[in-house]
């Protein structure tokens, strides 16, 4: 692993409006949802502090007033019985810490397993064939077990003691008490002559009923819990691997051009905006910028998931974290550090994981009271069996089984692990979901509304025909129109500028009217450029009608109140648009094309891609009205767009999806950002979100159902604690394994 050149969110981000800061803390010692709830409650008691804790990533996202220091936050977490440190912008430290923890668990697991196997075999043989019992056999079992239940289980005991000092009861408390109780009762049995059963009771009875000596049970519980922890840690690393791969793709150094034309190699963190830097074949582009000279094919897979390289040349925008495959580029930096697209996408993932789904909030509330309830049930079980059977051995066994089987670790992992895996897979596919709200909204979406230009079409427009009014020349009109449109972000504007050429005159008093056009003063002349609704075509109405019949977009140019020209702009439908629409229809989702373009152009595009419902000549506020009209009819609407005029509609929709190639306004208003240009990103995003929700529900049903079904069995005395420990470990393993299946989403066999 290499260091992250474009850092993840720092320990304390820049103050937000109102003096609120956001701090990320790495919290160690959490093992279940009860731990999460305790940390959140402790932090919430600090004035003005709001916190969300993620068990899977072991990260606390804390919003707090500027006067609350990071030291106060870490002290608060430590007062809850856990350790906390500011999250490092360098992921390598967290990776190494997790690796050390995983190696420690593995070491304890191996030693415990080596001692447990002969102890378990010996216990079964001695229980089923009493004649094999030799003098001092109890002491042999005790010698084999003590290293396991002390050193092997020490992390569990340590965390249980830390929690006890702060009045907290967690999963580790349940396990530690179970191991301690089994060991203590076994020691009492060993030291009390005549308490061992001399009668044979067969193999299955030995397994199901157990002897009064529970040393193999204490060892088995330790082994199974350690095994569960190890596989859980390994699975967490796999779940986060996609995000770490994304995070570590940034460049570490960059070659900047100095005044004399030579190159100087500096750390990428020292790069500043407007500096020129050089990218050679095979190098990672250090930051966002504009190509000044050179040409090359760029591998954008780190950001978009697309394996197909795209060409880049002078004037083209490039994104940090992508790779120059061939050629040499000179790039002018337009954004550095936290302002880059790369950093913004990482923040999206971090922010998404800092939110909680409705289902996870329910699970957390249950877990907050679950552990104390388990202790109460175990106590009542012990008392009930002691009174009912008169056998303290049966009472101890049943109580230990309740403690071990009821550990709620699977409940705490059910949602965060699934979302962590989905976030990583989404990043690989170029799909960035802002949080659980967006995730939950996809479940009910039944209608997807598409903007046309830049969404269903490529948005790379070109001026195909120029019809000039008498008294004007094509070159003069294009220069005036290009000067005005040079200040606009719209795709039609870029096409006009491209046709007008370089060295355009300056524009004054520029004004843009979203969805209609733009105006300005160029060389003393008042110029207006826009749709026929913005500028009446007058005598050139025939050219407008002809363009509409051919499905082309029209821009009318007016100079000092006189119609000067009609520009016919052609667009290209995205190659995968029809297939993407077909996938949505196959999933039972209705599609709508919503555009400010003319009806003929919209109808032609809709017919080619398979969209039946077309709404054309729609202004930006009309797009919002159209979305709300669909919602009023009972539809759950997802809106897909990329322009400034799509922002209000994206915000109004139940789910907003912004194309990553679009404007900042569109991306900030959306719930999901699609970094791929292909329209197939839309069904991929909806499909991944729905698969994630399905996985979370399966996890929660298993976690809840497992405890609901297992506790009564343990209370009834029908469950050997050893079997309970194995079942508890399997429960966590199942939840993690089920979540890891999301890594395969979208892959082809």
UniProtKB/TrEMBL annotation:
<keyword id="KW-1003">Cell membrane</keyword>
<comment type="similarity">
    <text>Belongs to the cation transport ATPase (P-type) (TC 3.A.3) family. Type IB subfamily.</text>
</comment>
<feature type="transmembrane region" description="Helical">
    <location>
        <begin position="109"/>
        <end position="130"/>
    </location>
</feature>
<feature type="transmembrane region" description="Helical">
    <location>
        <begin position="213"/>
        <end position="231"/>
    </location>
</feature>
<keyword id="KW-0547">Nucleotide-binding</keyword>
<dbReference type="InterPro" id="IPR018303">
    <property type="entry name" value="ATPase_P-typ_P_site"/>
</dbReference>
<dbReference type="InterPro" id="IPR006121">
    <property type="entry name" value="HMA_dom"/>
</dbReference>
<dbReference type="InterPro" id="IPR017969">
    <property type="entry name" value="Heavy-metal-associated_CS"/>
</dbReference>
<dbReference type="InterPro" id="IPR059000">
    <property type="entry name" value="ATPase_P-type_domA"/>
</dbReference>
<keyword id="KW-0812">Transmembrane</keyword>
<keyword id="KW-1133">Transmembrane helix</keyword>
<dbReference type="Pfam" id="PF00702">
    <property type="entry name" value="Hydrolase"/>
</dbReference>
<dbReference type="InterPro" id="IPR044492">
    <property type="entry name" value="P_typ_ATPase_HD_dom"/>
</dbReference>
<dbReference type="InterPro" id="IPR027256">
    <property type="entry name" value="P-typ_ATPase_IB"/>
</dbReference>
<dbReference type="InterPro" id="IPR001757">
    <property type="entry name" value="P_typ_ATPase"/>
</dbReference>
<feature type="transmembrane region" description="Helical">
    <location>
        <begin position="722"/>
        <end position="740"/>
    </location>
</feature>
<keyword id="KW-0067">ATP-binding</keyword>
<feature type="transmembrane region" description="Helical">
    <location>
        <begin position="366"/>
        <end position="387"/>
    </location>
</feature>
<keyword id="KW-1278">Translocase</keyword>
<dbReference type="Pfam" id="PF00403">
    <property type="entry name" value="HMA"/>
</dbReference>
<feature type="transmembrane region" description="Helical">
    <location>
        <begin position="399"/>
        <end position="422"/>
    </location>
</feature>
<dbReference type="InterPro" id="IPR023299">
    <property type="entry name" value="ATPase_P-typ_cyto_dom_N"/>
</dbReference>
<keyword id="KW-0479">Metal-binding</keyword>
<dbReference type="InterPro" id="IPR008250">
    <property type="entry name" value="ATPase_P-typ_transduc_dom_A_sf"/>
</dbReference>
<dbReference type="InterPro" id="IPR036412">
    <property type="entry name" value="HAD-like_sf"/>
</dbReference>
<feature type="transmembrane region" description="Helical">
    <location>
        <begin position="700"/>
        <end position="716"/>
    </location>
</feature>
<protein>
    <submittedName>
        <fullName>Cation-transporting ATPase</fullName>
    </submittedName>
</protein>
<feature type="transmembrane region" description="Helical">
    <location>
        <begin position="174"/>
        <end position="193"/>
    </location>
</feature>
<dbReference type="InterPro" id="IPR023214">
    <property type="entry name" value="HAD_sf"/>
</dbReference>
<feature type="transmembrane region" description="Helical">
    <location>
        <begin position="136"/>
        <end position="154"/>
    </location>
</feature>
<dbReference type="Pfam" id="PF00122">
    <property type="entry name" value="E1-E2_ATPase"/>
</dbReference>
<dbReference type="InterPro" id="IPR023298">
    <property type="entry name" value="ATPase_P-typ_TM_dom_sf"/>
</dbReference>
<feature type="domain" description="HMA">
    <location>
        <begin position="21"/>
        <end position="85"/>
    </location>
</feature>
<dbReference type="InterPro" id="IPR036163">
    <property type="entry name" value="HMA_dom_sf"/>
</dbReference>
<keyword id="KW-0472">Membrane</keyword>
<dbReference type="InterPro" id="IPR000579">
    <property type="entry name" value="Cation-trans_P-type_ATPase_A/B"/>
</dbReference>
């Amino acid at each position: 692993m290499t260091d992250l050149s474009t850092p993840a969110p720092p320990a304390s981000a820049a103050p937000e409006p109102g003096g609120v800061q956001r701090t990320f803390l790495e919290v160690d010692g959490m093992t279940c949802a009860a731990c999460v709830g305790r940390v959140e409650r402790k932090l919430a008691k600090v004035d003005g502090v709001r916190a969300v804790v993620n068990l899977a990533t072991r990260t606390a996202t804390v919003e707090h007033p500027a006067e609350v220091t990071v030291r106060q936050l870490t002290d608060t977490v430590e007062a809850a019985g856990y350790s906390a440190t500011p999250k490092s912008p360098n992921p390598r430290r967290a990776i190494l810490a997790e690796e050390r923890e995983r190696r420690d668990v593995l070491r304890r697991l191996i030693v415990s397993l080596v001692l447990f196997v002969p102890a378990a075999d010996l216990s079964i043989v001695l229980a089923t064939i009493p004649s094999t019992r030799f003098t001092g056999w109890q002491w042999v079992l005790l010698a084999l077990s003590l290293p396991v239940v002390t050193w092997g289980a020490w992390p569990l005991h340590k965390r249980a003691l830390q929690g006890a000092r702060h009045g907290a009861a967690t999963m580790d408390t349940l396990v530690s008490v179970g191991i301690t109780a089994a060991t203590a009762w076994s020691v009492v049995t060993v030291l009390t002559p005549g308490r061992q059963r001399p009668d044979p009771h067969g193999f299955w009875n030995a397994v199901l009923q157990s002897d009064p000596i529970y040393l193999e049970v204490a060892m088995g519980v330790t082994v199974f819990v350690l095994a569960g922890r190890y596989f859980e840690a390994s699975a967490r690393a796999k779940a986060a691997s996609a995000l770490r791969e994304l995070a570590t793709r940034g460049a570490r150094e960059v070659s900047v051009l100095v005044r004399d034309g030579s190159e100087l190699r500096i750390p990428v963190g020292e790069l500043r905006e407007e500096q020129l830097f050089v990218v050679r074949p095979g190098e990672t582009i250090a930051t966002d910028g504009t190509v000044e000279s050179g040409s090359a094919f760029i591998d954008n897979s780190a950001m978009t998931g697309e394996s197909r390289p795209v060409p880049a040349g002078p004037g083209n925008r490039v994104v940090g974290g992508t790779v120059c495959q061939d050629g040499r580029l000179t790039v002018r930096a337009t954004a550095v550090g936290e302002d880059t697209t790369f950093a913004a996408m990482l923040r999206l993932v971090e922010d998404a994981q800092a939110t909680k789904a409705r289902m996870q909030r329910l699970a957390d509330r249950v877990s907050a009271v679950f552990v104390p309830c388990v202790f109460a049930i175990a106590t009542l079980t012990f008392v009930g069996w002691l009174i009912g059977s008169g056998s303290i051995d049966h009472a101890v066994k049943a109580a230990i089984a309740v403690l071990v089987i009821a550990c709620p670790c699977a409940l705490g992992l059910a949602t965060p692990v699934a979302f962590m895996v989905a976030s990583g897979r989404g990043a690989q596919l170029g799909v960035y979901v802002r949080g659980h709200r967006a995730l939950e909204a996809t479940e009910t979406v039944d209608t997807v509304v598409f903007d046309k230009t830049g969404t269903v079409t490529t948005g790379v427009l070109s001026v195909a025909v120029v019809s000039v009014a008498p008294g004007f020349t094509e070159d003069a009109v294009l220069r005036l129109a290009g000067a005005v449109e040079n200040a606009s972000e719209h795709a039609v504007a870029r096409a006009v500028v491209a046709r007008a050429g370089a060295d355009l005159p300056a524009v004054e008093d520029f004004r843009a009217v979203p969805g209609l056009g733009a105006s300005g003063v160029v060389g003393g002349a008042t110029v207006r450029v826009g749709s026929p609704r913005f500028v009446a075509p007058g005598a050139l109405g025939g050219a407008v009608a002809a363009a509409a019949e051919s499905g082309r977009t029209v821009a009318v140019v007016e100079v000092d109140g006189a119609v000067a020209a009609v520009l016919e702009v052609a667009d290209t439908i995205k190659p995968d648009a029809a297939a993407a629409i077909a996938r949505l229809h196959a999933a039972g989702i209705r599609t709508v094309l919503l555009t400010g373009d003319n009806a003929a152009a919209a109808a032609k595009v809709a017919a080619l891609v398979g969209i039946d419902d077309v709404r054309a000549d729609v202004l930006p506020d009309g797009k919002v009205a159209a979305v709300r009209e669909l919602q009023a009819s009972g539809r759950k609407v997802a809106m897909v767009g990329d322009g400034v005029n799509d922002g209000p509609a994206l915000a109004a929709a139940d789910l907003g999806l912004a194309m990553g190639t679009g404007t900042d306004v569109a991306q900030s208003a959306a719930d999901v950002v699609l970094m791929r240009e292909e329209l197939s990103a839309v069904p991929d995003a909806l499909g991944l979100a729905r698969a994630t929700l399905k996985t979370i529900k399966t996890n929660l049903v298993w976690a809840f159902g497992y405890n609901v079904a297992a506790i009564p069995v343990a209370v009834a005395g029908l469950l050997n604690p050893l079997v309970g420990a194995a079942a508890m470990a399997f429960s966590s393993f199942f939840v993690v394994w089920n979540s890891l299946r999301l890594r395969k989403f979208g892959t082809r066999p």
